[in-house]
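debug: dumping io for the single-chain case to check the tokenizer round-trip. Nothing else runs in this session.
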Amino acid sequence: MPAYCRVYTEPGLLVTRLQGRVTIAEFREVYVELRSSPGFSPEFPEIVDFRSALSFEFDHTELARLAQRVTGQHADMSFKTAILTTPGLSHGMARVYQSYAQLGDVESVQIFDSPAAAFSWVGLPDYQVAALEICPQ
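debug: decoded output
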């Protein structure tokens, strides 16, 4: 799975892009890499781009654990995750993650098919979407 993650300290944004075959181990690795990146803040909103994911090789139990881990680390703060998807598999997997994340009643997760809508929802409507490397397909 080619993966990309980056911390934008200005304006305060986390970006993750997952492509191809996505396994739970690789998903966790990207999450750990992002959290250890210079400038990382758990208070930054995040945009996760699943639009180029072709398959997800993990089950609901593994996805539930990941969602619980993420929401547990944001228990004392407001946190937004915008997930970019395409119709079909990536949207379905994002919806399952969203459901598990909302069980913790902490992390606010929304699913979008438009980068502009995702940026607007995380509070950065004027941020240059094209400047981010998540957009080129």
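debug: round-trip ok. The helical segments are 24-35, 60-72, 89-103, 115-121.
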